[in-house]
Amino acid sequence: MLPGRGPNGRAAATRLSRLLGTRTSWTPVGDGEFFCPGCGGDRNYQRLTGHRRFALFGVPVLPRGETGPVVECAACRRHFGTEVLDHPTTTRFSAMLRDAVHTVALAVLTAGGTGSRASLETAAAGVRAAGFDDCTAEQLAALVEALEADTGRFTGQPCAAGLAIELHEALDPLAPHLAAPGRESILLQGARIALADGPYTPAERDALATVGAALTICADDVTRLLAAARTPS
Length: 233
Known about the structure:
Blueprint: H1 6-19, E1 20-36, E2 41-56, E3 59-73, E4 79-80, H2 90-112, H3 117-130, H4 137-151, H5 161-171, H6 180-195, H7 202-214, H8 219-229
Antiparallel strand pairs: 1-2, 2-3, 3-4
Helix pairs in contact: 2-3, 2-4, 2-5, 2-6, 2-7, 3-4, 3-6, 5-7, 6-7, 6-8, 7-8
């Protein structure tokens, strides 16, 4: 029998691990709140750096270098790589989604104008569903008018550079954390606003194309989705 195999070999390996091994001492270097992949929810965390030492009889004796940093969940105590901090917390994700829907609604209304009550009501309903509970058609109309006064942009013009930047600022950080149906849902919400008062105008199509690009939806899929939105279900 090869060394280390069988009951006697395993027992010997266990005794050796008790005599010799590596121990890690952890030092907190920061804390905060994160989405814990182990717990599946928002939790507090500590960011830790570690120092490894060779241990004899369980007593650290010789340094073996540094390890980490790692993120330790305060609830489950599991360790994760620091890349988990890139994932937004549930609270932060909800705020990002709410702001994205609001920005898309303003972009489409700015492209199509605020003369249609149906478009304003459709936009307000979508924004309320996303989390702005007190949003009204009148508030959106006032915001669009303020945007036009600030930028000098007029209804019916293609998506201006400033508006495109705002769309990307709102959607770029969100897109990696949304599955394809979630990204498509945001685009389709914008399409419903545009269609509430009739067919797409060129300016509305341009704004929706910018939304699709910011959501990393390919141009062919944007065309398909905008066509599907025109078909009554």
